[in-house]
Amino acid sequence: MRQTIVRNVAELPTYGYGPRSGPWWGAIGFMALEGMGFAIAIGAYLYLYAVNPNWPIGAAPPDLWPGTAETIIYLLSVIPNEMTNRVAHRQDLARVRLGLIVMALIGIALLVLRGFEFAHLNTRWDNSAYGSIVWLILGLHTTHLATDVGDTLVLAVLMFTRHAKPRRFSDVTDNVFYWNFVVLAWLPLYVLLDWVPRL
Amino acid sequence: MSMVAEQHELRDDALNGLQLSTRVEGIWRTPSGFLGALMSVDHKIVGRRYIVTAFAFLLLGGLLAVLMRVQLARSENTFLSADKYNQLFTMHGSTMMFLFAVPVMEAFAVYLVPLMVGTRNLAFPRLNAFSYWMFLFGGCFLWISFAVNVGPDVGWFAYVPLASLQYTPTKRPDVWAQMITFTEVAALAVSVEIVVTVFKQRAPGMTLDRIPLFVWAMLVTAFLVMFAMPSIMVASTSLILDRLVNTRFYDSSSGGHPLLWQHLFWFFGHPEVYIIFIPGTGMVSAILATFARRPVVGYPVIILSLIATGFLSFGLWVHHMFVTGLPQLGAGLFTASSMLIAVPSGLQIFCWLATLWDGRPVYRTPLLFVIGFIVIFVLGGLSGVMVASVPIDTQVHDTYFVVAHFHYVLIGGAVFPLIGAVYYWFPKITGRMLSERLGRWNFWLAFVGFNVAFFPMHILGLIGMPRRVYTYTADMDWAHLNLLSSGGAAIFAFSFALLLVNVIQSLRSGTLAGDNPWDASTLEWATSSPPPPQNFDRIPVVKHRDPLWLDNASLPVVAGLSVERREVLLTSLAEAEPQIREASPEPSIWPLLTAIATTVFFIGSIFTPWAVLWGTPPMAVALIGWFWPAGSKEDEE
């Protein structure tokens, strides 16, 4: 077919941030389907809660302190996360490096706390259906936490190499975005795991 | 925030004709050789592999169906043992649903969507390659297990308690559950790619109301996959955990509940039907417009119907569980919603009929299959409205009536449009036409064979023949209808053999197709057949819903993209206004390596929970290799 040039896009940028960029929508897509995974797991928990006369089954509710400490750290982590977002938009490499290191350390601290949380659930996965669903949900969220920490670490290292090119700042903002999802997903899980058994 | 590329970069506005084609093709070509083939991220190459693999699984699943029909052709037959029969119907259902129906639809989307929206590759092409490998490895895992007598035998739905360790102490259900994980990972990945491609990579000017109906259908399907499949992943994971580390999800003595399985399974399982059917409707709309020689009547009605069907499909799953003793209110609600979904499907059927009515239909093979689809699907829809009602469902539950119903819906709703689609897009994919004469034989044998095979099953069900029995006694009086059904199955199977012959013959010596053999209206026909690696030398601009019918001699295009590196044009979500010249990834071996690491992890973890520990580092290494910038032009901008 004959071609007629009707427009020239040579002046367009080669990367962008937020809804203009492709990876941002990819992140949204994965958040949607992973969020659905959490919703289904929550549904399974509530189903088992509804069909069992006693809840929790044969166990004390989880100890409150690890989950509560995590929740506080998650909420506070939004501040350095947002600061990383802003310096990435300004393409300030030194501060982006700092932000990524801080976020990686926060993630590692949360992983350690998560270990304590498993130890203080007061039930094993094979005790009862209650124990099974609690371990499943906490395990599911831990996978997300660990994935994001891994991603943050790799990105932090990357920003110290010659690959720290301008388009990588967009990757940093996507990483920031995903962390918000990890935080947001945790809040209902905290209520479900730590407070519903106390109802 | 923007960084305008330096001006010395060579752009496609500086070149023309052959010079431009050669240059862009050189950038987008997949490297040659075996290693190059393993590295390919071209959506057409991956899509073609996906299609061929899915059809190979159709062949295998179809052979199992033939074996079952041989066994049932007469009473008290000893051709198959009860155990073999259990494996056969489980493998047949699992193969057809997870390894054929869903993947083949996604495969067509992988091939066609970028061409139809006028871009050069899918979003996340490496994820696409990874998705294919996961699908292939998952399918091989299931079939190799079957070959060594570890084929699942608990039905394609693997109900507990039958599928629990206590009642099936073999690895068979684990094979089934992990095959699910493989195929769901593959399907979820493709869905995200489709959504982002349709949202962000449409040709400039392709506003929401100019998107081809097939693409709309695949977009809705992608969303259904994203929201339905997490449920089956939670289900299959919890089943494996119950069987491997003694969790108690489905153990009623420890607070677990077998019905939880059915809820999780059918919350996925019912949308699954629409994940298979909605792409079929997209194919129908595409074929119908071309052969009725006019745009499909009621474009907005069809899109709204697709979206409505998508939403409603999540509110019906309990109608698979009417005999489990539900509260009456629940049963009533799900009866109502099950009947409601007939409304958007019906609206689409009327739009298609109106298109035929008002058009000047050219009865070529693709259109024949579409008409076959309308007849068979409407019959399946009618028996669907019947089983939506609790009293009827209670009577016919687990009988051959239900087998007849869902084969009418699935084969009518998806396989007939699919075969029509093969005839329709084969020229684009291979550059050659399929034989029209063989095509007509193919259609009539399929249509007659299908109805002879499956219509008698309605009656068998009504006179009481249950599903999943490996044989029956002579005094039940089911033998004649079963023999008839087996005869029909043989004819139906033969029609697929004809299709295979047609494909092989036409690949060798079919008539050359040219760019647009059907005088169709959408963008995939604006490039050569088969399309070059870059799809289009320059990105098209869309000014009309049927761009090639507006003007089939010249194509408006944009210029200004790089001819030194792989670039695609990102456009805005609603108006498709150009926004970014985005780099597109080059071929890479890492998706394959990641898929191999993931396969080791998945298969290991049905044998030992420690696989989670030793299986993770190789996956992490492969993923880092995948995303680490390799110093190529794409990544250094």
From TrEMBL, chain A:
Q: Which residue numbers delimit the Heme-copper oxidase subunit III family profile domain? A: 1-198
Which sequence ranges are marked TM in the entry?
24-48, 96-113, 133-160, 172-193
Q: Report membrane topology.
A: Multi-pass membrane protein
The record ties this protein, via InterPro entries, to: Cyt_c/ubiquinol_Oxase_su3, Cyt_c_oxidase-like_su3, Cyt_c_oxidase_su3-like_sf, Cyt_c_oxidase_su3_a-hlx
Q: Which GO terms describe its biological process?
A: aerobic electron transport chain
Q: Where in the cell is it found?
A: Cell membrane
* Primary location: membrane
Query: Which keywords label this protein?
Result: Cell membrane, Membrane, Transmembrane, Transmembrane helix
A GO CC annotation recorded here is:
plasma membrane
Which Pfam families does the record associate with it?
Answer: COX3
Carries keyword Membrane? yes
Drop me one GO molecular function for this one. Answer: cytochrome-c oxidase activity
Q: Which family does it belong to?
A: Belongs to the cytochrome c oxidase subunit 3 family.
Recorded protein name is Heme/copper-type cytochrome/quinol oxidase, subunit 3
Tell me what organism the protein belongs to.
Answer: Bradyrhizobium shewense
User: Organism classification, top ranks?
Assistant: Bacteria, Pseudomonadati, Pseudomonadota, Alphaproteobacteria, Hyphomicrobiales
UniProtKB/TrEMBL annotation, chain B:
Q: In which pathway does it act?
A: Energy metabolism; oxidative phosphorylation
How is it placed in the membrane, per its record? Multi-pass membrane protein
Keyword Magnesium on entry: no
Cytochrome oxidase subunit I profile domain spans which residues? 22-543
Tell me one GO biological process term. respiratory electron transport chain
- Catalysis: reaction(s): 4 Fe(II)-[cytochrome c] + O2 + 8 H(+)(in) = 4 Fe(III)-[cytochrome c] + 2 H2O + 4 H(+)(out)
Q: What is its main location?
A: membrane
Keywords from the UniProt entry: Cell membrane, Copper, Electron transport, Heme, Iron, Membrane, Metal-binding, Respiratory chain, Translocase, Transmembrane, Transmembrane helix, Transport
Query: Which terms in the GO cellular component ontology are assigned?
Result: plasma membrane
What's the superkingdom here?
Bacteria
Membrane-crossing segments per the record: 50-72, 92-117, 129-148, 175-199, 211-241, 273-292, 299-319, 331-355, 367-392, 404-426, 438-463, 483-504, 589-613
| One example GO MF annotation | cytochrome-c oxidase activity
InterPro entries, sorted: Cyt_c_oxase-like_su1_dom, Cyt_c_oxase-like_su1_sf, Cyt_C_Oxase_1, Cyt_c_Oxase_su1_BS, Cyt_c_oxidase_su1_bac
Q: Does the keyword Transcription regulation apply?
A: no
Localisation per UniProt entry: Cell membrane
Enzyme Commission code(s) on record? 7.1.1.9
Against PANTHER family, the record matches this protein to:
CYTOCHROME BO(3) UBIQUINOL OXIDASE SUBUNIT 1, CYTOCHROME C OXIDASE SUBUNIT 1
Function according to Swiss-Prot or TrEMBL: Cytochrome c oxidase is the component of the respiratory chain that catalyzes the reduction of oxygen to water. Subunits 1-3 form the functional core of the enzyme complex. CO I is the catalytic subunit of the enzyme. Electrons originating in cytochrome c are transferred via the copper A center of subunit 2 and heme A of subunit 1 to the bimetallic center formed by heme A3 and copper B.
| Entry-linked NCBIfam families | CtaD_CoxA
The family classification in the record reads: Belongs to the heme-copper respiratory oxidase family.
Q: What is the recorded name of this protein?
A: Cytochrome c oxidase subunit 1
Question: Which organism's genome codes for this protein?
Answer: Bradyrhizobium shewense
Query: What does UniProt list as this organism's lineage?
Result: Bacteria, Pseudomonadati, Pseudomonadota, Alphaproteobacteria, Hyphomicrobiales
